[in-house]
Design a protein that fits this description.
Pfam families: DehI. By secondary structure, this protein is mostly helical. The chain starts with 18 loop residues before the first helix and ends in a 21-residue tail after the last helix.
Length: 302
């Protein structure tokens, strides 16, 4: 059934995928250098014709070095914003207080690094697709460089909503209420592998999410992605009319547009959220006091 606003969308989990969907999942993982399939594609798979057409349009794009360079600019934008505008404590000491083993600390850091790699890629693809519903996106006839081999990453352990222990489910409910999303996104599912860390991280992140500065910063990251779609190497053409011509119903097309809008709206924030987790594991940014408003302006006496 197509997804409707306010509902929890249907997700075709990786272990449930068969046939052509399983093949597309494998290609998505390999092309993006990820050990898992990002959630938007798992939702698209509930309308398999759209997943097929969407990925066919994006396949040439993600095969280029230029695509990953553009995603890198989004990643840097999100990290810089989180570091400059949010007060992030040192959660690395918290990990030590929780007596994480060396292996667990390394696994947590690797998981956050994988999420930090993934979200800008997905945001750029979703921003391109949302615009492509209306018009052609990208630059035709530009020289490209094949994407280099991508490093192999360990698959995170995801604690699914339906199988999480009670304290984690309560935390998930608070996350959904705060974010306004009908699902718990991948970052939280992965960090729930370490429930004490997730609880400490959420105590830091929740007041940030509720601040006007966060909303402005998240919107700015999404705007960066939106603008960078103009520099995508090659044309992306997959309008709503193209989808109906390919046999999709108007209802399914509408559902795909709403799903894509949802992720474009929230992925800028997800980039910031993971950047905040990364900064917290790098020692935080509270060593120096925040800049006072008067310090931001040049001295009149100078």
């Amino acid at each position: 059934m197509p997804w409707k606003k306010g509902q929890r969308p249907k997700v075709v989990k990786e272990q449930e995928a068969t046939g052509s969907t399983a093949s597309l999942y494998q290609e998505i993982r390999q092309s993006l250098g990820l050990p898992y399939v990002p959630v938007p594609f798992q939702i698209f798979a509930a309308i398999p014709r759209f997943l097929e057409l969407h990925w066919a349009s994006m396949r040439p794009l993600v095969a280029t070095e230029e695509f990953f360079a553009l995603a890198g600019r989004i990643r840097a934008d999100g990290y810089t914003s989180a570091h400059n505008y949010f007060r992030v404590p040192d959660l690395c000491h918290r990990v030590e207080d929780l007596r994480f083993s060396t292996g667990a600390r390394r696994e947590l850091t690797d998981t956050v690094d994988t999420l930090h790699h993934a979200n800008p890629l997905v945001l750029l693809l979703m921003a391109a697709q949302l615009q492509a519903f209306d018009r052609t996106v990208g630059r035709p006839n530009v020289a490209t460089t094949p994407a280099p081999p991508l490093p192999q990453r360990e698959r995170p352990t995801f604690i699914d909503e339906d199988h999480a222990p009670t304290p984690t489910r309560k935390l998930y409910d608070d996350i959904k209420r705060t974010t306004g999303l009908p699902i718990v996104t991948t970052g939280y599912l992965a960090m729930a592998r370490w429930p004490d860390f997730l609880a400490a991280y959420w105590r830091v992140l929740k007041p940030i999410l509720e601040s006007p500065l966060y909303r402005e910063s998240a919107s700015a990251v999404s705007d960066t992605a939106w603008q960078l779609t103009r520099e995508l190497p090659g044309e992306i053409k997959l309008t709503c009319d193209d989808l109906t011509d390919a046999g999709m119903t108007d209802e399914d097309v509408g559902a795909c547009v709403r799903i894509t809008e949802l992720f474009v709206k929230h992925l800028g924030g997800m980039v910031l959220n993971v950047a905040t987790a990364k900064i917290s594991l790098e020692g935080g940014n509270l060593a120096a006091p925040p800049m006072a408003a008067q310090d931001e302006l040049p001295s009149r006496a100078a």
